[in-house]
Amino acid sequence: MKKSLYSMAISIGVFAFSSSVAAALIDYNDITPSTTMTPGAFPLNQIVDGITADNYPFNGFTSPQTAGTITFDFASSYNLSSFILHNDINVLAEGIRDFRLDFFDSFDQQIATPFSTNYTGPQGQLAGEEYIFNSSVLNVSRVDLVIFNTNIGGASTQVEIREVEFGISPVPVPAAFWLFGSGFLGLIGIARRKAY
Questions:
Q1: Which of 22, 130, 187, 191 is most enclosed, with most CB atoms within 10 A?
Q2: Around Cβ 30, how many Cβ atoms within 10 Å?
Q3: SS3 content of the chain, % helix, strand, coil (to 5)
Q4: What is the pLDDT of residues 38-62, one digit of tens each?
Q5: Domains detected in the chain
Q6: Three-class SS state of 21
Q7: Range name among 13-22, 29-38, 59-68, 180-189 with the lowest pLDDT average
Q8: Does the predicted model carry a pTM greater than 0.85?
Q9: What are phi and psi of 177, to 5 degrees?
Q10: What value does the CA radius of gyration of the chain take, rounded to a whole number of Å?
């Protein structure tokens, strides 16, 4: 009996530790996009619908403009660890090129970040490109994706984005050990009760 309890406690600890380091994403239902950019053939809501594939009938957001801002409002505040860009619809070396990310808290105050927020989108890449931040950006309620220009390739130079995703910081490791410890103590308590 004791042996199985110890095994159970170790399993809880392993689960807690692995949960603490596993990458998580904001659920696409918790993201509301908006923009003043003119929409093209694909509507803006497809940019956060959870579909990242590049197959017919295709999916994403397009605009005939080559620059502009797309705003992503979150249902609550998050600690962001990365931004994932699935660039270009019907991948033909198009999509956005140079862009910046601006972060805002729940009071619409811009959050200063200790790292550069200027990036370059991949050209002709099917997989999503993950931009990992040097440190987590805390308590973010809104992100502005500021697009400076687009990639020149394929049939057009318009804005084309299949999907965006936001990585959130995992549970800190000390919390995982707390879970492990409390689970272990609970199992010992159960064992003692059964012994009497």
A1: 187
A2: 14
A3: 25, 40, 35
A4: 999 999 999 999 999 999 999 999 9
A5: 1-22+171-196 (no CATH), 24-169 (2.60.120.260)
A6: helix
A7: 13-22
A8: no
A9: -70, -35
A10: 22
